[in-house]
Design brief:
With about 240 residues, this protein is α+β, with helices and mostly antiparallel strands. It has helices spanning about 50-65, 100-110, 135-140, 150-170, 215-220, 225-240, and strands at about 10, 15-20, 25-30, 35, 40-45, 75, 80-85, 90, 90-100, 115-125, 135, 175-185, 190-195, 200-205. The protein binds uridine-5'-diphosphate. Uridine-5'-diphosphate binds near residues 95, 178 and 180. Uridine-5'-diphosphate binds near residues 101, 103, 179, 180 and 215.
Length: about 240
């Protein structure tokens, strides 16, 4: 059914390629071996990363689907690709935080590692030129990207997803520090979770040692072997 999809190239992003399929409502997402940070300024090939993230993200989306939360994910079709619903994405990124780290620490002058009692929901405007600025609900509505009602739905679903993944990972000896989510709408105007959930888009720490198991390994400048081993460790821990 999808034999000729490679001729059906739709879009290439920093870490993924998207193909159309015979079904107008479905796409194939191909995970590449590129790792980027600092809004794409730092970029390199990381062998096997696409395979590992495809598998990790498929496990996460299957988990979320199993709780009745709607996502774009249909199924993983091979090592690097998954079949997903085609959505119209909001040009927003939503970050949920359980522990202070990264941009929140810098913005508010709070030490990295402080535990957050009530997970924090943040909105960023997805715009490479502006370097994805931190915005609030009013900005997002003013920019005509989304309605207040849709933001409230996404806020609630995001906190539910955070709770589900946090618990799932904790039972696998991983702490979910924060995660970035993206959402979009299908033809029926339903809001679905999109994109990926992987060590590229979450901060994950080993529960016993606090060792970093995510893209911070790349941001810090670890070797390729150390980075891929950290990603692999996440997959090994959750793929049981
Ligand atoms: N994140 C992401 N894509 C982005 C920006 C952030 O997936 O374009 C993730 C990041 O990996 C972390 C979380 O969102 O898990 C919060 O990132 P933060 O705002 O602290 O920014 P950073 O420190 O990564 O600049």
């Amino acid at each position: 059914m999808y034999i000729n999809y490679k001729n059906n190239f739709l879009f290439e992003g920093k870490t993924k390629k998207i193909y159309n399929t015979d079904n107008l409502n479905e796409i194939i997402i191909h995970y590449k071996d590129i790792i980027t940070s600092f809004d794409g300024d730092k970029k390199q090939i990381l062998n096997q990363k696409g395979i590992i993230n495809n598998k990790i993200s498929a496990i996460m989306f299957n988990l979320i689907n199993s709780f009745g939360i709607k996502t774009h994910f249909i199924r993983r079709i091979n090592n690097r690709e998954q079949l997903c619903n085609k959505l119209d994405l909001f040009t927003l990124e939503f970050v949920i935080r359980n522990i202070v780290f990264g941009s929140m620490s810098k913005r508010l002058g709070i030490k990295e590692g402080v535990y957050i009692q009530n997970p924090i929901f943040e909105i960023f405007y997805k715009n490479d030129f502006l370097k994805d600025p931190f915005i609030n609900h009013d900005h997002a509505v003013f920019l005509k990207i989304i309605s207040y009602e849709e933001l409230n739905i996404i806020n609630r679903i995001s906190l539910d997803i955070n709770k589900i993944i946090k618990k799932f990972l904790f039972d696998k000896n991983i702490i979910l520090v924060d995660l970035k989510l993206e959402f979009g709408k299908n033809q029926e105007q339903d809001i679905l979770l999109a994109d990926e959930i992987s060590p590229d888009t979450c901060r994950l720490w080993d529960k016993a040692t606090n060792k970093k198991l995510d893209k911070d390994c790349f941001r810090i400048g670890y070797s390729n072997e150390e980075i891929i081993n950290a990603y692999m460790e996440v997959l090994n821990k959750i793929d049981k």
